[in-house]
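Write out the 3D structure for:
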Amino acid sequence: MFAASLWLAVPAPSPAAAPADSNVRVPPERVELKVQKVLAAQDREFVYRAYLVEWHGQEVVVRDALAKTKYRPNDMITVLVMRHPYPQGKEDYGLLSFEIVPPRAK
């Protein structure tokens, strides 16, 4: 079972507000994206759930770390796009991560 966090290090268009320096922390951005595919796995009582979406013309995986959502293809989901500096500044690029924002309890 896949247990690691998803960190993508891909060159991607950045919002105009993002600084050019990849070692600077940038606040997370909330975006609405359409689910293209559901990625799920189960091993006894352990589950994994993520969603394939398109972001800036690129396919990325949005992780649901707590497996609290059950979206289907074509559903719109709220995603946190996070830009992190590379740990200890050891690379000249930053890291992207994509996390689901679960719907609020009613």
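The longest strand covers residues 26-43.
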